[in-house]
């Protein structure tokens, strides 16, 4: 059952945003950063009036927006300026492409988390010639002060109904017909597809950020109902590598410290799953003096773990002795109640993997166990004999809930999105059919190259002779475009899986 | 021009083995370990009589072999016993499959480096039911004492003519018609294809180890002349990962120490190329206190280097100051004469990458520079002002020439070869066409799993519920078979390249 | 001029607590953890009545205390329980010594930071037989809810006058005459010495925690006016090693993340000073992918830095290019205005070393620079051309201000304090003269051994034969008592220094 | 019993050099490098004539020397030139002090290992004005080709009688009366003290390299019979740090690879002892992917091990499972026969610690065990059931026997020796009494500073204001001279030990 096609539901029947968020979040980590860090800088004013009922005017005299409090725009501007400092690639893109205005005529409607980093993206798109309207892909994540700085609709804590109303405001406005979509989760695409089929047909391209949204696009494509070329930027290599390996390497430390102040040195840690996320967690903890072992189901990853210096064990073999348990498998019930029963007093349990399925949290919601919330995002679950297990973020993603994502990583995502929009908007018609595409390898490499300046890194250029010897173009791409194949192969496995339950 | 098809040359017209060896070696590192370590344990007896002119009898009274000195068999046996200690996966395979004799009836002719580890492979094949005849794929690499322990032909230092004669001895013997080929470099396959087309047609499968041999098979396949299924084991993931990342991580240290006794701590090192080989070299040297920077042409690899903590520079920017330069690019003339001129006194230059092309050694063969051989594999090249550049292995592969490959890695290769032979010999006819295949992902995983015992690693098994959730079979494969696609994409680029010059 | 002796000042003339705190804090990091972490869990109730003016009754019906709000005792109890989980060494000491009650008869007056960890110490002392009264050594650091759980006086935000009043309350109470002092900073000792000379003479021992307090004791001793044996626990080896190397290794990461969310990977960092603190910072940042270089004045430390893989540079050589500057020198004006002028936009500057002297913050308080407080503890200092330098904690200690100290480290400090009290209280009179002592090596080792259980570490025991061979007692000490000499040598240098300005 | 005083033995009664060597070697690692590396470059000519019976003339027409073969001088010169490349500190010292000739008039007799690095030292001393005569401190370590390049006596493989004869030749020659001694082991000092008491009295200073020699000097001093100032350079901090931590970090890898070609990745290793040597071994192996645990007797070192990420275990707990066992304790019988019996097949056992006492090798010399020498320095000890334990260097020091010491480390030693000679020769009479001294801290720092150029390291200089603030002289010393105290404390413990058995 293909959601885009079959879904006939009304607003109130949609799955709650919370549930859907965590699904998308598991891969598209960068798109949800705002939960932890930004939240603290946003106002907690007591104004309970719905923005839909307010009349506000911005500094240019316009009323074409719907935000919590337009007066916060100045504060929002400051947050944007801070973000700009770590997004030099995007600024550099602005400067390089500013003259040609490659997005002149583009009318982009965007539906992503509304954060300072997103604002830098929007302002980049505008400086390249585009007009933009923006709405929030998540009801909890909007930085209200940033939302106050640009045209669009959305606020932190909006209702489900508000959510769809805001999307609608950005699509259906007099004198405005979008011709490009930038989406994170597929809700905007869904809305246009269902409610405005005529607008949908005239869209020149969709850029989709999240694994959920990509999945929904593939379903549509498989059903022969995707009439627009779409670009899957979730699977671009720079994003994958940064979001998983490198960011997790840093955020596992940050998340544990902010919640528990635990000392890493000497701690016995078991990391479940040795994929990219697990590799990042293991590397960081080992580097800080923890004694780390891993669990794996795949012998090849297990063998890599061995060579990297980690004992490969079954969780049940070590569960009695370890100080910290971190799940990074993408699987469900990796930590079971039976294992929770056997943990030692003070054991910390948390999840860096997929959604909130990895730890069987539900199994601890039983009468004999006492839950004590000791800090924000930290529960002590207390056994009858007094043993305490320290559960973080109720088993949801630790780095989403309890740490931040560096602006630099968000810059990679935003730059990739901008390039994908430029590519789809400017490509000759013959280049992209009505299908889902990966970003061409060369543009992936271009995103990377724009970010090298941050590190003062100097690329070597091939001589003519060397390029000929290697059979490469001097300007790249330097690696083959095999990721499309990769995706196909991966998708084939996922369609057999129940981890993407029928969304309708 | 496809070599297998067009080549009409006679023995003497073949490219010299030396040239070809280094080509194949660049990827199939494991197959050439014998150069350094084993060499020292081999006899240096003065017997100049050609083995072809000798009559020797082994302990079982047979004369069906042609080796340097049959009396060394006992010494060879001891070397084999040492090797067995680190090849427990192969022994384990022996035990598991011994009862079924999956190779009963197989007549395998092999052409690989003849080393103690190869002998363990041969004896494994025999214990699984096969008959074997073996010959050397390289005129310099045979461990004579090991060759004395089994049926076949080859000796260290044989001539080109001897080389092809030995191959012929193993293919064309009365009462013996091979039905399986295990090759390393493609020379045996070529010989059978050209000289014994009738034998070739009856072959049930070819297993090829080297990148050169695989390339030649693809050429044959593309020309529609491959009438036998072939298995490319060079690209199996366990082999790639171990040969490149992990082995280079260890062998860069070993190679530098054995040649120069250099202290790593505090040394300024530039590693050219940040692929798997470069990553291994960088990790090891950084871990031992060197200050490492890298050069790259590919912005994605460069960005990885940045995140891993290495400065990305152009060689020319740092060449005046660094203590050690290591090439790992697969490219040519990465270190030029102009750069060599600018190096400081005592700079060490060596190659861990491809063939012997990376350092422009030829450019230093000029009258104004004096070459002084100070140790085996170590030359001081002396400039007119007295400056010395320390060149290792004359720019050939450092780890081939100056360090050893752990038996454990060779065990992975040998186990993969054995499984590929079993698979091709036993597969239903419909499974493999007349094409080049990668080892099925599941068998790749099986090779890995056989090696986990060495590390006392315990795999976690999926529950039924988890397998269903992930859409996986509980016994694997756990990753998709996308490598075939990968190979195709890679090949496409390589065909445009001049690094595989026309072999005919 | 010796402060204890000459000081005639009244309350109001004392240096402000703030100024003094930072001095003591620079070494005794553990004693001030409460600033950052604990602060957030303490009430921010609006009750403005001074505790001195309130009448409160605790759950046992007593009024013998003076705290902010006795009703918070239950909340305080929970914080103590959390702390107990990471202080198993202290609990273990309780159990081992409980039977003998080695502190029976001891009347201990304590003046330290009042935190949950301190409460665990107090309760340990009580369970070993002591009576205790406690007061705060710092006007800002008290966890009010913890203060509510025990007998004593002090609250967060008390005035200077309150500070001395609270001390006086703990010393001079009807029916209570202290015979042991546990001090952190020397203020309590000073008070007793000056105001109650008769009490002072009957004290059986002083245990001093901070470098400032130790310095003041040595001054007294040098002047021949110390009539009580004192124990310097600041310089015990477990404390030094943990407070400096290991804690800084973790807190540099924590402090930077909590304030700036900076990504460590690829960042260019300069660490000024390669002592234990610098070594910890460098190790952590290198491990997370930063490119780290160091500055040093001492060639031996510089050579260690080289061998550990860090470039040794002058700050002025790299100041234009680096992303982060961290001072760990113990020196003053290590970062000057001239260097601040040359930093690049977005450079982060912070201090992990001594006091608040290392960065010349005062030099930036000039009209042409704009200060913008962007977050708590984070200032953007903006140059006329728009360049921003990001200054953390206004140049005060980053880990004091912006990160937390693990309870495990505080456990080491508290255990050492408890053992020092036991030793001084029980030692035969002849053992300690009226002088300042280091904890005997054997007790230092005992503190370490009590903490090994946390790591499930198993010590090896010497056989009789081995002990004889090594000339050691089987139960230790395993290292010589040379630290006394060390201290003397160090002190000699410090007396020539102006970093301990005349306190009077 | 003080050896220098009581010893009445004749030549033949001395302990064999082999035994004594290993004792001195355990700390003075650098002085014995020649065993492994240099050995291979030395001639193995068959000339059996004793050098004492030959008449040879050098290129300057002199016969005042006694070496194996004067014709090798040219080869020796080349080895010296190679060494010079890594000894830039010594060359720099030459240049700085050449003008003043601070050793003018010095007649130095030296007794150390005769290697290329020693030759660079000798030539440095000569260029500073000294006359030198040199002899070997070890009967096996002389590089004959280097010995041929300077005035002195000694050859590889000389007898005990030759040994003392060579010493005598250097002390007692017509027209030559030494006034300075540079010794390694104390044999030369002993000889002069006993045989030429009148010469001894006129000596202006003794510089001693080894722990054994230093111990003997302290004995003499304690007995009141040392009539000459002596300098203990063994305990200078640069030498200690480099010889133990940093060198072992590199040589453990080198030694294991050269002997066994073992792959480090994934290996389970136990390191016995976590002092500086153990720390170096652990760091290197962990960095290369081994799973390392440690054993310790001292709880403080154990706690450091915990924080550094190593499990602390008893050997007996893990001995059944580990792949490699490395002893670094300084103790005896750390690995017992009972434990050897329990090791698994293929376990590698080696010693990086003290002498040859750590592994109870003698216990394996029993009839039921078979010893098989499989390579140089590698024995398989075979149990009746076929189990093999791989013993390296028969339990002697692995890095002495099977790896090399970088020239850079020897440069530190040699520079320290040179400075000590200069200091003793030039110091005003009042500065040094008839006692054993450590090198003044400032000179230790000067040695370090001379070596910084190798790493292009730039020291920061204190401003006047900063120096005053810290109470330091701008030119150092930067650390106190507390090592003298340290040594006294350490010595106290050692005198109770049996590890320095009565030498007489």
Describe what you observe in this structure.
Chain A has 20 helices and 15 strands. The termini of chain A are close together. In chain A, the strands form 2 sheets. The first copy, chain A, has an 8-stranded mixed β-sheet with strand order 9-8-7-10-11-14-13-12, with helices on one face. The first copy, chain A, has a 7-stranded parallel β-sheet with strand order 3-2-1-4-5-6-15, sandwiched between helices. The first copy, chain A, folds into 2 domains: 3-235 and 406-439, Adenosylhomocysteinase-like (Rossmann fold); 248-402, Rossmann fold (3-Layer(aba) Sandwich). With 504 residues, chain A is an alpha/beta fold. Chain A has helices at 3-6, 17-25, 73-85, 88-97, 116-127, 144-147, 160-171, 187-195, 197-202, 211-222, 237-260, 276-287, 299-307, 315-318, 337-342, 398-402, 407-426, 441-452, 464-470, 483-495, and strands spanning 107-112, 131-136, 152-153, 180-183, 205-208, 230-232, 268-272, 291-295, 311-312, 324-327, 347-351, 370-375, 378-382, 388-392, 436-438. Chains in contact: A-B, A-C, A-D, B-C, B-D, C-D. The interface between A and B is large, with 73 and 73 residues.
